[in-house]
Amino acid sequence: MQQKTKKRLPPFLQIQESPGLKMSRHEPSQQKPSGRLDNQAKLLLLVNAVFIAAGALSGTFVNVYLWKVKSQFAPIAWFTFAAHLAGALTFWLAGWYVKRLNKMNVLRAGMAVSALFYLLVLLAGPKAVSYAVPLGLVQGMASGFFWLSFNVVYFEITNADNRDLFNSWAGLLASLGGMLAPWISGLLITRLPGNNGYSLIFGISLALFVVGVFISFFLKKRQSEGTYAWSFSLRCLREEPQWRWAAGALAGQGLREGVFGFVIGLLVYISTRSEMTLGNYWLTTSAVGLVSYFLIAKWFSPRYRKWGMLTGSVIMWGILFVFFWQVSFTTLLIFGIAVSIAYPLFSVPMLSTIFDLIGTNEESARNRVEYVVLREFSLDVGRLVGILIFLLVTSLSVSPLTLNWLILCIGIGPLIAWVCMTKLFRHVPAAKKTDN
Question: Which residue ranges does UniProt annotate as crossing the membrane (predicted)?
Answer without folding.
Answer: 43-67, 73-94, 106-125, 131-154, 166-185, 197-219, 281-300, 307-327, 333-360, 381-399, 405-425
